[in-house]
Amino acid sequence: MTAVTPPRQHEKYNRLIAAAKNVPPLATAVAHPCDETSLRGALEAAEAGLIIPILVGPKGKIEGVARTFSLDLGDAEIIDAPHSHAAAEKAVELVRTGKAELLMKGSLHTDELLAEVVKRETGIRTGRRISHVFVMDVPGHPHTLFITDAAVNIAPDLDAKRDIIQNAIDLFAGLGLGVPKVAILSAVETVTTSIPSTIEAAALCKMGDRGQITGGELDGPLAFDNAISPEAARIKGIKSPVAGQAQILVVPDLEAGNMLAKNLSFLSHADAAGIVLGARVPIILTSRADNVMTRMASCAVATLFRQSQIAKQPVQV
Q1: Tens-digit pLDDT profile for residues 100-146
Q2: Of 84, 172, 221, 271, which has the fewest beta carbons less than 10 angstroms from its beta carbon?
Q3: Domain map of the chain by residue range?
Q4: Considering the domain 9-125 in this protein, what is its CATH number?
Q5: 128-278 CATH fold
C-alpha cells in the first residue's frame, strides 16, 4: 500500500502572510511583468492584500499576457515602458521619487534590475552593500532559516560580509523575530589558515564583539551540521549559544549559498522566499520556479520589513 504524504502546512510562511495582511499594503513598482509567472505573482499578491502593484513595462504586452492566461488586471496601474531596460529604469525612478515603497522583479534578468538600483545618480543605493536573503521554510525544522548571500555577491570580502550579515540581522529584527543567532559557515568549525573562510568567520565574530556588527549573536566558523543540529554541536563539543540553534546562515560565497539553498529546496522540499536588502527599499526577487506560497511569502516579508523601516520599530509576527 502506497503511503500518502500529508500536504505541507507552511506554518512559518502562513504566519508571515497573516501578519502582512494586518498592515496596509504598499505601492510596489513591478519591473517588466511580461510573462505569466511574474504577472500572476503580482496580481495574486495584490488580491491577497499584500501589495498595490504598479505594472511597469510594454502596456500591450502586459495586457496580452493577461488575456492569454485569463488574468484579471482589475484596476492595477500600468506605466508603459518600451522594453525591459526602460521598465527597470522607470520602476527604480518610482521608488526614488516616493511613488512606490517596494520594488519587484518581473520577467527580466536580475542583473538588469540591480544595475539600475545601484546607479550613483539615478539609483536607490545606500551606503550599505546590496545583498540577498533567502527566507526558507524547511519542513521539520523548528526555525525559519535565513541564508545569505546566495544570489547577489559572488565572492564577498570581509567588508562586504559585514554588510551582508547586518542586512540579514536588520531583516530578522524588523520582522519582529527578536535577536537572531547567526552562524558564519565554513567546511569546519576550527580556524585554520588553509581555509580562508574560517579566518574571515573569526574576524567577523570579533567585529560583532566590537560593535561593528550589531543586533545579533554571532559564532563561527561553524560547519552546517553543527550550526543547525544541537546533537551535532554536542558531539563536536562546541559550547556556544549559536551552535545547533542558528537562525541566520552566512555562507562563504555565492556558490556555496546557492547550492545550500537549492539542496534544501529540492531534497528537503523547502520553500525559499527571496528578498534583496541594502537599497532604500526592499526588493522582491522571485524565481520562475517559485510556487504561489513562496511568491506570497516574498511579498509578505518585503511589506513587513518596509513597514518596520517606515515606523522605525519591528512589526509583530
Answers
A1: 999 999 999 999 999 999 999 999 999 999 999 999 999 988 888 99
A2: 84
A3: 9-125, 128-278
A4: 3.40.50.10950
A5: Isopropylmalate Dehydrogenase (3.40.718)
Nearest-10 Cα torsion for 161, 163, 166, 168: -70
Model-level pTM greater than 0.85?
yes
Least confident of 4-13, 77-86, 161-170, 186-195: 4-13
Q: Which three cell numbers stand for residue 292?
A: 504561489
Could you tell me how many helices (H) and strands (E) the chain has, helices first? 11, 11
Which residues are CB-neighbours of 143 under 8 A, at least 6 positions away? 245, 246, 247
Nearest to 158 by CA among 198, 125, 218: 198
Using DSSP bridges, classify how beta strands 181-185 and 77-80 pair: parallel, antiparallel or unpaired.
Answer: unpaired
Would you state the cell numbers that stand for residue 265, as one nine-digit string? 529546496
